[in-house]
Amino acid sequence: MSKRIAVCPGSFDPVTLGHRDIIQRASKLFDKVIVLVSVNAMKNPSFTAVERVKLIEKVTADLDNVVIDINDGLLADYVKKVGACAIIKGLRAVSDFEYEFQMALANKILYDGAETVFLTTSAENMYLSSSVVKQIASFGGDITHFVPECILEDIKARLWKEPEEIK
Ligand code: PNS
Q1: 8, 32 in Cβ contact below 8 A?
Q2: Closest residue (by CA) to atom 22 of ligand 1?
Q3: What is the residue extent of each domain of the chain?
Q4: CA-derived radius of gyration, the chain
Q5: Which of 4, 18, 52, 111 is the S-S candidate for 125 at Cβ 3.0 to 4.6 Å?
């Protein structure tokens, strides 16, 4: 039987505990999960695509059926190329829904061979996003509850500002 492959796309700038939770849960549902770092999604990312891949590698090192890749084209084309049957997205709140619904419909029109599967985020990650992490870190705040411990220092090294640097 052919392997059931899912693609979990995103900016992951940087990967958070919320992302890790969705990736882990997806890895239980599919034979293989490809975490796909999109290089076009943001104009000024804080981490390069290669840096984002390295951070995701660290936080998914224990998940045997998870691999990471970079894509600079359309998601639908990538999904078709790798023969994936699903696109995994995490939904935090109703506010996520309209945009995600729009993307799911567009991707279905572009490539009919895969379904978008929405996983509801865990309650403790409802408020969590990469932007929130970046904002807290840039004000020297505590991000230990938002990002996996193994990448805490990497994120601090890039984003952390000491109180005297904050104007
Ligand atoms: O983490 P994000 O920023 O919400 O992820 C958005 C992402 C990367 C999944 C989305 O922008 C995307 O799929 N970009 C790839 C380009 C593409 O296919 N765009 C059309 C989607 S309808």
Answers
A1: no
A2: 103
A3: 5-124
A4: 16
A5: 18
